[in-house]
C-alpha cells in the first residue's frame, strides 16, 4: 500500500515534528517513539483532516512548543505540540505559499499566491459580525490579518533578517525586494538580476549581510542585500542537470496556459470582459469555442527537464562556510564553498538515486533529507536507489557530504518505519512536482500592446531584471493586470502610511532601521 512521504520534518532539541500528507506526528529524538499523532484521532477528527487536504505550509516556533500549518482548505491552524492540541484555526484570504513565526512566536507571517504577506497574532480572537473588514488589505481578509507588503505576482519565498528589521521577499516575476518590517510599505532595496522566477532565498547565520537566491535561472546569485548588488554568480545547471530524475510536461512558452490551438496556432487570451457575449447572440458563443484541426494529428506529450531550486541552506565546518541546495525532482543535495572565487567545478553532489523532496540542517553539520522513497520512474526516468527509505541523515566535514549513520539513527529508522498509509489517489493529490510546471512562465498576461494606461505606478522599479540584463528597454513590461495589482496595493499601503503619519507618534522602534552599511561592515562577508 502506498504511503505519504515526509513533506516537512522539523528536528528540535528533544522532539521531531513530522508532517506527512494531512497528518502530523511528534516523535522522541532519542527513542524514536511516536509520542503523538493525528492518525490516532477519532474518526470524526480524521475526516476533518482528510477533507482539509495535505498540509502545504508549516513552521515550528523557536521554543519548539507550537506548530502552525495550512492545507488545501486555506485554514491557518495553530497546534500545541504537547498532545497535538488544536489551539485555533482561522481562514486565510488566498492559498498560502509560506508561513513563519517571528522570533518571539507572538506573530505568524503568511505569504500567498496573490502576492501579499499578512501578519496574524498568535492568539486568535474571532472577528464579530459588526466589525469592519480590514481596510488595509488588497483583498478581503476574513481573519483580520494585517497587510505587511504586496507584490504584483505570487510570492514564492520570504524571510525575516536575523534582527527582524527587514523582510526580504521573492516572487514569480524575478523580483527580490527588501522592505522594512513591520512597516512593509517602506521599500528599502531591490535585488534585481534574475531573469526567471525566484523560488528560494537564504541568509547564512554566520553572515547576515549575504543573501543567496535561486529559482529558474541556471545560476545561484550571492548578494549584498543591503546594497542590492550581486557579489557573485555561480553556474549550477550544468552540475544539477544529470540528477534531474523527474521531468515536466513540455508546453509551448509564450502563450496562455490552457489556450487551445486554433488551426495549429495559439492565440493570446483575451482580457476580462472582452469575451463576454451579448444576450441572445450565438455568434459570440461560437467565437469562444476553440477551432479544431481534424486533419492535424494530436502530438504525443513531450517531457523536458526544468530547473526549480527548492531549498538553500548553509553550514560552517572545518573547511569553512558552505552553501547547500536542492532542486525539485533531482536526486541529490548539492554543496559549494561560500567564497568569492567559487565556480561550478566546486559544486559537489550527494546522490540518493531517488528524488529529494526537502532537507534541513540540524545543529552545525547534520542534514535531514526527505526523499520520495516510493517514486516510480516514468518514461525516460530512472531510479538508482537500492532502498525505499523516505529519510536519510547526512553529515558534513572537510567540504564533503557523507551518510551519517550514527547521528539520529534511531529517529531516522522510526521515521522510515512509522509511515502513514495512503491511497494512490491521495499520494497523487500531493502534486510533489507541480512546481516544475507552475513556476515557469509559459505565457504573457499582457494585453494588446499600446492598449490602456501603462504608466508605471510610483515605487515600481524603472528597470526590470530581465530587461536590464538584455539591455533592450528601460522600463518594466508589466501587463494591465500587474499594473492594476501594483496600483491597488500601493494605494492600500499609502493609506496605511498616511494613517500612521496622521494618527500616530512614531516611537523609537518605528524609526528607520539602523544604518545598513554599518551592519554590513560588521558582517563577516565572503571569504577571498
TrEMBL record:
Domain of life where this protein originates: Eukaryota
Keywords, ordered alphabetically: Nucleus, Repeat, tRNA processing, WD repeat
One cellular-component annotation, GO: tRNA methyltransferase complex
Basic residues bias spans: 266-277
Function: Required for the formation of N(7)-methylguanine at position 46 (m7G46) in tRNA. In the complex, it is required to stabilize and induce conformational changes of the catalytic subunit.
Location within or outside the cell: Nucleus
Family of this protein: Belongs to the WD repeat TRM82 family.
Bias kind Acidic residues: ranges: 288-298
One GO term (biological process): tRNA (guanine-N7)-methylation
Keyword tRNA processing: yes
Entry keyword Nucleus: yes
Name assigned to this protein: Transfer RNA methyltransferase 82
Residues covered by region (Disordered): 256-299, 444-480, 494-528
Comp. bias (Basic and acidic residues): 278-287, 497-506
Pathway listed: tRNA modification; N(7)-methylguanine-tRNA biosynthesis
Amino acid at each position: 500500500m502506498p504511503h505519504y512521504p515526509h513533506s516537512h520534518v522539523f528536528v528540535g532539541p528533544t522532539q521531531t515534528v513530522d508532517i506527512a500528507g494531512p497528518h502530523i506526528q511528534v516523535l522522541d529524538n532519542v527513542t524514536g517513539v511516536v509520542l503523538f499523532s493525528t492518525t490516532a484521532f477519532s474518526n470524526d477528527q480524521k475526516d476533518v483532516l482528510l477533507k482539509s487536504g495535505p498540509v502545504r505550509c508549516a513552521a515550528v516556533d523557536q521554543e519548539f512548543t507550537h506548530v502552525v500549518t495550512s492545507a488545501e482548505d486555506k485554514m491557518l491552524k495553530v497546534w500545541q505540540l504537547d498532545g497535538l492540541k488544536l489551539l485555533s484555526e482561522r481562514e486565510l484570504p488566498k492559498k498560502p505559499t509560506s508561513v513563519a513565526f517571528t522570533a518571539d512566536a507572538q506573530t505568524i507571517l503568511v505569504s500567498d499566491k496573490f502576492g501579499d504577506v499578512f501578519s496574524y497574532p498568535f492568539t486568535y480572537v474571532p472577528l464579530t459580525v459588526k466589525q469592519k473588514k480590514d481596510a488595509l488589505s488588497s483583498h478581503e481578509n476574513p481573519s483580520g490579518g494585517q497587510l505587511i507588503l504586496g507584490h504584483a505576482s505570487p510570492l514564492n519565498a520570504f524571510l525575516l533578517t536575523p534582527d527582524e528589521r527587514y523582510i526580504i521577499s521573492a516572487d514569480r516575476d524575478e523580483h527580490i525586494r527588501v522592505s522594512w518590517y513591520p512597516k512593509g510599505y517602506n521599500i528599502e532595496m531591490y535585488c534585481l538580476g534574475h531573469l526567471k522566477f525566484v523560488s528560494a532565498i537564504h541568509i547564512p547565520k554566520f553572515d547576515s549581510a549575504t543573501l543567496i537566491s535561486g529559482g529558474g535561472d541556471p545560476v545561484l546569485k550571492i548578494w549584498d542585500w543591503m546594497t542590492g548588488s550581486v557579489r557573485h554568480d555561480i553556474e549550477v545547471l550544468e552540475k544539477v542537470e544529470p540528477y534531474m530524475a523527474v521531468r515536466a510536461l513540455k508546453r509551448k512558452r509564450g502563450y496562455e496556459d490552457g489556450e487551445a490551438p486554433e488551426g495549429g496556432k495559439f492565440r493570446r487570451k483575451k482580457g476580462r470582459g472582452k469575451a463576454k457575449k451579448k444576450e441572445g447572440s450565438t455568434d459570440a458563443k461560437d467565437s469562444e469555442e476553440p477551432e479544431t484541426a481534424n486533419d492535424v494529428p494530436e502530438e504525443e506529450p513531450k517531457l523536458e527537464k526544468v530547473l526549480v531550486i527548492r531549498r538553500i541552506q548553509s553550514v560552517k565546518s572545518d573547511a569553512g562556510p558552505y552553501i547547500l541546495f536542492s532542486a525539485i525532482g533531482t536526486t541529490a543535495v548539492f554543496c559549494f564553498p561560500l567564497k568569492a572565487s567559487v565556480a561550478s567545478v566546486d559544486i559537489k553532489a550527494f546522490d540518493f538515486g531517488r528524488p529529494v523532496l526537502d532537507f534541513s540542517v540540524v545543529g552545525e553539520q547534520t542534514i535531514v533529507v526527505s526523499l520520495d522513497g516510493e517514486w516510480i520512474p516514468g518514461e525516460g526516468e530512472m531510479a538508482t536507489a537500492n532502498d525505499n527509505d523516505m529519510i536519510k541523515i547526512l553529515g558534513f566535514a572537510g567540504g564533503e557530504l557523507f551518510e551519517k549513520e550514527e547521528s539520529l539513527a534511531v529517529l531516522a529508522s522510526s521515521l522510515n518505519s512509522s509511515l502513514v498509509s495512503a491511497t494512490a489517489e491521495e499520494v497523487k493529490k500531493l502534486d510533489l512536482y507541480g512546481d516544475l510546471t507552475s513556476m515557469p512562465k509559459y505565457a504573457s498576461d499582457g494585453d494588446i500592446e499600446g492598449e490602456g494606461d501603462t504608466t508605471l505606478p510610483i515605487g515600481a522599479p524603472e528597470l526590470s531584471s530581465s530587461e536590464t540584463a538584455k539591455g533592450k528597454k528601460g522600463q518594466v513590461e508589466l501587463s494591465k493586470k500587474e499594473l492594476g495589482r501594483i496600483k491597488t496595493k500601493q494605494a492600500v499601503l499609502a493609506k496605511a502610511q498616511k494613517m500612521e503619519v496622521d494618527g500616530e507618534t512614531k516611537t523609537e522602534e518605528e524609526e528607520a532601521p539602523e544604518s545598513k552599511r554599518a551592519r554590513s561592515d560588521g558582517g563577516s562577508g565572503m571569504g577571498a
